[in-house]
Automatic annotation (TrEMBL):
Name of the protein this chain belongs to: Methyltransferase type 11 domain-containing protein
Source organism (scientific name): Kuenenia stuttgartiensis
Domain of life: Bacteria
Coiled coil feature spans: none
Residue span, Methyltransferase type domain: 45-139
Length: 224
C-alpha cells in the first residue's frame, strides 16, 4: 500500500477541496476522448479524484463515471454530493483496482499517481493497461517534474521520491515523486503508445511571486 495517510487528514480538515474541473484535463479529454467519437456511453475511471472536482465535467458530457479514492472522507463527500450519478470506491489504486479486463474507455488522474513511490506508480499503470479496452486512453495531468523547485526539499526515500516536504502545496501531503521524461517514457513503453507529452513550467508574479511549478501532462493509448 502506498496511499499517503496524510491525504485523509487533509480532507478531514477541509483542505484541498478543489471545486472546479482542471482546465488541462478538460482540454485533453475533449481532444483525445471526446464522447461524440464513440458509439456508446464512454466509461471513465478516475484514480485519486480527491473530492471530485472533475466529476461535473464528466457528467455534463455524458460519461459513465467511476473512481477509486484513498480517503474515506473524500469518498463520503462525493457520494453525498453526486449520489447515484457516480460509482466511487474507497481504496488504494496502487493495490486495489477491482475491475475486469477491457472495462474502461478512458482512465484519468490529476496529480494523484505522482503522489506515490515508484513501485506503486508502476503497479497502477500496469493495472490500468489491463482494465482499459484495446485502444483505450490514459490521460495523466500534473505528474510533477524534477525541474519543479520543490523537488529538492524534504527527505529523499528513493531516487526522485520525497516525503515531508515542508513548504507549498506539498506540505503535509506525504509522498511525492518527481518524474524525468525518461521515466515517463519507460513507464508507458510496454503497454501504450504515447500520443502526447507536455512539460509545463510557470511561475506566479501577481499578486505574489511564487517559486514556480513544473509538471508533465501525458496522453497514452493502450496497445492492441
Amino acid at each position: 500500500m502506498t496511499f499517503s495517510k496524510e491525504w485523509e487528514a487533509q480532507f478531514a480538515a477541509g483542505s484541498h477541496f478543489s471545486q472546479y474541473p482542471w482546465s488541462d484535463l478538460v482540454a485533453l479529454v475533449m481532444r483525445h476522448a471526446n464522447p461524440k467519437k464513440y458509439d456508446h456511453k464512454v466509461k471513465v475511471l478516475e484514480l485519486g479524484p480527491g473530492v471530485g472536482a472533475n466529476i461535473p465535467f464528466f457528467l455534463d458530457k455524458g460519461f459513465e463515471y467511476h473512481a477509486i479514492e484513498g480517503s474515506e472522507t473524500a469518498v463520503k463527500y462525493m457520494k453525498h454530493k453526486f449520489g447515484d450519478n457516480i460509482e466511487v470506491i474507497a481504496g488504494d489504486f496502487t493495490s486495489l483496482i477491482p475491475y475486469e479486463e477491457n472495462t474502461f474507455d478512458l482512465i484519468i488522474d490529476r496529480g494523484a499517481i505522482t503522489c506515490n513511490r515508484m513501485y506503486g506508480v508502476k503497479k497502477a499503470i500496469e493495472k490500468s493497461a489491463s482494465i482499459l479496452k484495446s485502444g483505450g486512453m490514459y490521460i495523466g495531468i500534473d505528474w510533477y517534474s524534477t525541474i519543479h523547485p520543490f523537488s529538492k526539499y524534504g527527505v529523499e526515500v528513493e531516487p526522485n521520491t520525497r516525503i515531508d516536504i515542508p513548504i507549498g502545496t506539498f506540505k503535509n501531503t506525504g509522498t511525492v515523486h518527481f518524474f524525468t521524461e525518461d521515466e515517463l517514457r519507460s513507464l508507458f513503453y510496454k503497454d501504450f503508445y504515447i500520443m502526447y507529452l507536455e512539460h509545463k513550467t510557470y511561475s506566479t508574479i501577481i499578486p505574489d511571486r511564487e517559486s514556480g511549478w513544473a509538471s508533465y501532462n501525458i496522453v497514452a493509448k493502450r496497445r492492441k
